[in-house]
Amino acid sequence: MSTERLFLITAPTGNTGAPTVKFLLEGGHRVRAFVHRIDHRSAALADLGAEIVEGDLLDFRAVSSAMAGVDAAYFCYPIAPGTLLPATTIFAQAAGEAGVDAVVNMSQISARREAKSNAAQQHWLAERLLDRATFKTIHLRPTFFAEWLKWQWQRDDNEGVLRLPFGDGRHAPISGTDQAAVIAAVLRNPAPHDRQIYPLVGARELDHYGIAAEMADTLGIPVRYQPVGIAEFAIGLVAAGFPDFFVQHISSVAQDYRDGIFSGENNLVEVISGHQPMTVADYVNANRAEFDHDGRFVQRGQLKAS
Question: Helix, strand, or coil here: 150?
């Protein structure tokens, strides 16, 4: 049976949005999923019990309409040139007019005033914009997602390869599901978290050699980390058709990663959500089939070792 509270979830078919919808519905709450287009993914959310609203986050009328009656909202916007700040402005104005109590904002761990990544700097600016609103605001700054492991995974016969430009840097990969548990918990009870910035990390900090070793133990095959240069990786992204804005972002955060910006451990996931985050082994085991083939963004034949 649904409660009277209604939550608006943007990017509801993504790595954090989809499990957030699921967690809230399982808790008996009403969920309005704001989708860019109606497709099989939105149909799956509707089957779970979510209300589906189609629209564009750059369309003030659509966002304002979707905010009607909403208690708290999750704002998640993709890496795209020149549109995050307009979308944030629209979302903030619509939320304020609708009397929304709280907005949980998905940012990134590299967001800061001096960020070299244009996307990361814009996330920092978006945070500051939301902080000026009268509703409660909570910013989440995750390190690299555990999902990166399957996106850049190369499967060579009975061996796995991670070719990435991260040098000897370290981080604690965090799954979208663990982030969703935090998002759902904060949406349900935002008051203790107002104006907080939470760096979200997974269970254990590792370098990519350690990540490869843990993946190998889980999958039962050899797994190698093959570091590549940042410039070489960027060339591969361009050759694969990625837009310049994204390439500039990845190149900049790769250097941030090497400089330790993505590192660190904490217990925020456990404290806020009530459960411990997945380890690398947990994530790989839960997504084992994804490692039987190349990841969707692998740059096969386009990179050389640094």
Answer: helix
pLDDT (tens, 9 = 90+) of the chain, 306 residues, equals 446 899 999 999 999 999 999 999 999 999 999 999 999 999 999 999 999 999 999 999 999 999 999 999 999 999 999 999 999 999 999 999 999 999 999 999 999 999 999 999 999 999 999 999 999 999 999 999 999 999 889 999 899 999 999 999 999 999 999 999 999 999 999 999 999 999 999 999 999 999 999 999 999 999 999 999 999 999 999 999 999 999 999 999 999 999 999 999 999 999 999 999 999 999 999 999 999 999 987 876 654 544
Tokens of 207: 């370098």
| 89: number of Cβ within 10 Å | 15
Contact in structure between 175 and 181 (CB atoms under 8 Å): no
The CA distance from 295 to 287, in Å, is 12
Measure the CA–CA gap between 156 and 78, rounded to whole angstroms: 31
DSSP symbols for 22-43: HHHHHTT-EEEEEESS-SHHHH
Q: Rounded to whole angstroms, what are the CA distances from 228 to 152, 160, 259, 306? A: 13, 16, 16, 4
Here the tokens at position 155 are 């499967």
Q: pTM to 2 decimals?
A: 0.95
Tell me how crowded residue 52 is: count the other CB atoms within 10 A of its CB: 15
